[in-house]
Amino acid sequence: MTEQREHGDHTGHQDGHAARDAIGRAWDELVDTAVRTVRDGLVVGTSGNVSVRVGDTVLVTPSGVPYDRLRPEDVVGVDLRGRQVLGDLAPTSELPLHLAIYRATDAEAVVHTHAVHATAVSMLVRELPAVHYMTGILGGPARVAPYALYGTEELAASMLEALRDRTGCLLQNHGTVTYGGTLSQAYDRTAQLEWMSRLWLTASGVPGRAPSLLSPAQLREAEAKLRGYGQPAR
Fold this sequence. Notes:
The chain is α+β, with helices and mostly antiparallel strands. The protein has helices at residues 2-39, 95-104, 116-122, 153-162, 183-204, 216-226, and strands at 49-54, 57-60, 77-79, 84-86, 109-113, 144-145, 168-171, 175-180. An eight-stranded mixed sheet has the order 4-3-2-1-5-8-7-6, with helices on both faces. The longest helix has 38 residues, at 2-39.
C-alpha cells in the first residue's frame, strides 16, 4: 500500500510539473505573438489581444499592459467560464470574445487586432470580396460583424455569426478576429486578412476600374489545395 501511494504521489508530481511546463511554453509563445502584432503594425500600444488554450485553461494577454513588458510570472489564465485561475493581472477586456470562440469552435488560439486596412474595409462593405485565393484559408470571404461595444457579449454574439463556417472575420469600425489550431496559424490568418484588405483597397481605389474577383468555384478549388500546403506533419 505504501508503495502504491508513493508511486501515485510521484506520478501526480510529474503530471503537475508537465502541466506547468506546458503553461510556461504556451505563455512564452503568446507573449511573442502579442509583441509581433505590435512590431508588424497590426496593433498600436496595448490594443488587440491574443489567447491560447492549454487543456481547460485559456491563457490571455492582460488588460492595459505593454506586451514587451510581460514576464513569465505575469501569466494570466481563465477557465472556459471566465473564472480567473492563474495570475493577478486582470485579463483583457475582450475576454468574452475569446471565450465565445473556444466554446463554439475547435480553436486552440485566437488573435484579435486593430489592423488598419482591415478596419478600413470593415467601414466600407459587409464582407471582404474574394480578391485572392488566400481567401480560402478563412473558409471564404471574410464577413463583417455589425458594430457593438468592445468587451460585450453583444460583440461576441455578432462575431460568432460572422465566423459561421469561417476562421476569420472583420469587426465593423473595430478590427479583425482569427482563430486556428496553433498561435502561428491564427497569426498567419490575421496577417493574410490584413494583406488582402490592403490589396482590395488598393485595387478598388483605381478610378474607373473594378477589381476582378474569384468565383465560388475558384475559391473552393483553392481552399482544397491550401489544405495540403506546406510540409507534411512529422
